[in-house]
Specification:
Blueprint (H helix, E strand, L loop, with lengths): L4 E2 L6 H7 L4 E4 L28 H20 L10 E5 L6 E2 L2 E2 L5 E4 L4 E5 H11 L1 H19 L7 H21 L4 E2 L3 H10 L18 H14 L8
Parallel strand pairs: 1-8, 2-6, 3-7
Antiparallel strand pairs: 4-5, 6-7
Helix pairs in contact: 1-6, 2-4, 3-4, 4-5, 5-7
Length: 238
């Protein structure tokens, strides 16, 4: 099992509030998805030098480690489990598409048609360097949860229902992995993560039934920590 100690400075909470979960989503293709795009994960990241904190190599190891932990976690819990086909890094608007819909920068998504996760590598590396490993493990955990929803045939009428369940599933994946010693947390990590989760959410006044709604800050934090503390039993999977 992959083991990782999450270390990030307290000053990173403000950035966490801005980027963690803000763009994570499930993309339903609007047309023929075709073959998954041929983009090499993390192979052309500008400035592949250590910046005094964390290197590109460490980021790539953490991406791989997060995927391995997620695959091991869901393989034990989903009958006939199939890993998500690819995790793709991109740099430009429209470099990756999901069923004809271009993915934008500062974003991450699971594409159900092509069965892949894609993320803006420059945005992710920047957040990783300022927040730490927690960003990588949460981001991929949330998107992997969308892939599991598709595998289980879970469908909801409203986006907010899918997103809050994915938050819960990501919390369960992280909490159960910590308890199984597949992941290791440092002192204060949970408090920082909680502060960050409470600082994100849909804009005030956004209708809960609007397409793309993810939930209020309180709803998102409650969903994540419910899964983290109580595992999948609280995520309404069955």
């Amino acid at each position: 099992m992959f083991q990782r100690s999450w270390a990030r400075p307290a000053s990173a909470v403000a950035l966490l509030a801005l980027v963690l979960l803000a763009s994570a989503c499930l993309v339903e293709p609007s047309g023929d998805p075709g073959a998954p795009p041929e983009v090499s994960p993390g192979s052309t990241v500008p400035g592949e030098q250590e910046d005094g904190t964390m290197s590109i190599d460490e980021f790539q190891r953490d991406v791989q480690g997060a995927v391995e932990v997620a695959e091991a976690y869901w393989e034990e819990r989903v009958e006939g489990f199939r890993p998500i086909r690819r995790v793709i890094a991109y740099q430009r608007d429209g470099e990756v598409e999901c069923g004809g819909q271009p993915l934008t920068r500062n974003n991450a998504a699971y594409c159900s048609g092509g069965d892949f996760i894609a993320y803006d590598v420059n945005w992710a590396v920047s957040a990783f360097r300022q927040i730490g490993d927690a960003f990588v493990f949460y981001l991929l955990g949330h998107e992997y949860a969308h892939g599991i929803q598709v595998r289980l045939g879970i469908q909801y009428r409203f986006t907010i229902q899918q997103e809050l369940q994915a938050d819960c599933m990501a919390g369960a994946y992280m909490g159960d992995s910590v308890r199984a010693k597949a992941l290791r947390l440092d002192d204060g990590d949970i408090d920082e993560l909680q502060q960050g989760l409470l600082a994100v959410g849909d804009d005030p006044g956004q209708p809960w039934f609007e397409s793309g709604a993810h939930g209020t800050a309180e709803q998102r934090a409650d969903s994540f920590f419910s899964g983290y503390q109580k595992s999948l039993d609280t995520c309404s999977l069955g």
